[in-house]
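My current task is to audit a protein record that another person submitted. Alongside the sequence sits a line of tokens, each denoting a local backbone shape. Please read both lines and tell me whether the tokens look consistent with the sequence. Do not assume that whoever made the record got everything right. Thanks in advance; the entry in question is below.
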Amino acid sequence: MSAEEPVIVLNEVTKEFQRQNGRGEFLAVDRLSFTIKRGEIVAVLGKTGCGKSTVFNLIAGLIEPTRGSVRVLGHDSFHEFAFFRGKIGIVFQGDRLMPWRTAMQNVLLGLEILDAKRKRAREIAGSWLSRLGLAGHENDYPHALSGGMRQRVSIARAFAVDPEILLCDEPFSALDEMTARTLRTEFTRLVRQNGKTAVFVTHSISEALQVGDRVLVFHRPARIAFEAAVSREMAPIAQEDLRQRILQVMEGSGETTERIDGSATG
């Protein structure tokens, strides 16, 4: 792929699920189209049940679209799933650590799957644990770590395999706000420093504005109701105006799609 080509492309994607009672189908994603360019952090925002996690699973290749196409790094995310081995790192809402493995062993997991040489793998895992403030805790088991520390291990595990893309599904929602804010800042810094592309699913407007270079607001079934670019240098009054506009969109349910440049600094 050339540097100019988007790394994630959804084209007229629709996803339907069979209802549990067997009577008809449930529409979760409705003709959704968007692209994400290399090095961009895109926050996907919306109320619970709007289809954010379904879109996350479509990009991750965990489910197949009913109609339309999902291309990641130029490949079909579902039918070419094996291609993405080591190319996508995932951080979930829960840390999903293996309780019988130490922090070091949990971070080593992805590297072991990729058949990395043991000595080099331990160097990489140790480096990421240290960068995330866990030096000295390498041999601790998850039960001995706080929630924030466990999520740091989860982030270290995702970065350790050096993926091109990071997919995050509300990774800090179970943490207290102080811890979550610190981790969001660290995560965003690491993504930018290491030139990664990230999709960050959230239901928090503040979190979306803190993390994203661009915010996509979904309505149910998943479709883009609002889109805005976000600048790190955005003036407080401009950010508050954007926050209020997003809140209005999330509270509504209209069909209109609106795109604005939210990068104003004045």
User: Anything to note?
Assistant: The chain has a mean pLDDT of 90. The first strand starts at residue 8 and ends at 18. Residues 212 and 226 are 14 Å apart (CA to CA). Residues 95-162 form one domain.
